[in-house]
Each structure stands twice: as C-alpha cells, then as structure tokens.
Design goal:
Elements: E1 2-7, E2 10-15, H1 23-46, H2 52-73, E3 77-82, E4 86-92, E5 96-103, E6 108-112, E7 122-126, E8 131-134, H3 140-152, E9 157-159
Parallel strand pairs: 6-9
Antiparallel strand pairs: 1-2, 2-3, 3-4, 4-5, 6-7, 7-8
Helix pairs in contact: 1-2
Length: 167
C-alpha cells in the first residue's frame, strides 16, 4: 500500500505491505485451531493414545509462532520524506530502525524493470555511497505508483532499460 501526503512542498510517501488480517483476527484464528486440535487430541487420549497430547501442543505452539511472525512482518513500514534538498528514508516495524539521508541532487531512484510477466520491478534509492531498496513487500501496481509519486516529488528516475518505454 502506498500513501502520499504533501504539505508545504514536502512529500511524504508511506510504503506498507497489504494486510489481509490484523493481529486480533490472527489471534482468533489461532484460538479456533487450538480448540479444534485440542478436541481431536483429547479424543485420541481418551481412546488410550495419550502420546498425542504433547505433539498437539507442539503443533499449536509452532503454528502460533509462525502466524505471529507472519503477522508482525505485515506491520513493516518505510517512510520517504522528500523536500527541495533532501530525501529522508526511514524503515522499521514499531519505530524507525533504519535511517538514511540523501541529497536530492546527488541521488536517484534506480529502477530495474521486470523481465518476465510475473516478476516485479526493483526500486533502489542510490547516491555515490549508499543504496537502499524500496518496497520489497509491495505488489507490482504499488511499485509503479511509488515510482510515479517519487517522480512527481522531483526524484530523478534512472531506468536500467532506458531505451524501452513503459506503457
């Protein structure tokens, strides 16, 4: 998901992954699966196969851990602030864990076009010293929207295949 805010000649782009379920909905799913697995495990235990109980607990615990990690990754965010002189890049989940500051005239958005129909283009903000990948979690339409917004904000777009025109 790409959001753009403009105020006083400052453009702020916020890049977030698309989220199909929030953490509360994920917890409900874990609870439903835990009840279902526990019910089946208790039936097997009542029939004398009690060894299934630890494995059922392990299964629910592993599922809960994996769903937590997946849900947490959907809360990632990248914020790009562009004014008339600088590009500020911040990325993180709950707070900005990564921060870069680029001079606008010395940097560009490097775009590597998709070569196959199911590939995504790759976006990098680059200057002489640093290169930062943008929106690895975005779908192709959102990446193209981000390119458009960055170009409108005054960022120079450098395309790897500059001789081809994008439709």
């Amino acid at each position: 998901m790409v959001e753009r805010t403009i105020y006083n000649d400052i453009s702020v782009l916020t890049l977030r992954p698309n989220r199909s379920a929030n953490w509360q909905q994920t917890k409900y799913l874990i609870g439903i699966i835990a009840v279902f697995v526990s019910f089946i495990a208790l039936i097997w235990a009542a029939l004398g196969i009690w060894i299934i109980l630890p494995f059922a607990g392990l299964e629910v615990s592993l599922l809960a851990f994996l769903l937590y990690r997946g849900s947490r990754s959907t809360y990632r965010k990248q914020v790009i602030t562009i004014d008339h002189r600088t590009i500020k890049f911040e990325a993180g989940i709950t707070y900005p864990a990564c921060f870069y500051l680029f001079a606008l005239e010395d940097s560009s958005l490097h775009v590597t076009e998709a070569t196959l129909p199911f590939d995504f283009c790759e976006l990098y903000i680059r200057d002489k010293n640093h290169s930062v990948s943008l929106g690895q979690f975005l779908n192709q339409d959102d990446r193209l929207l981000a390119i458009s917004y960055l170009q409108q904000a005054g960022v120079y777009i450098q395309n790897e295949r500059w001789w081809l025109q994008r439709k």
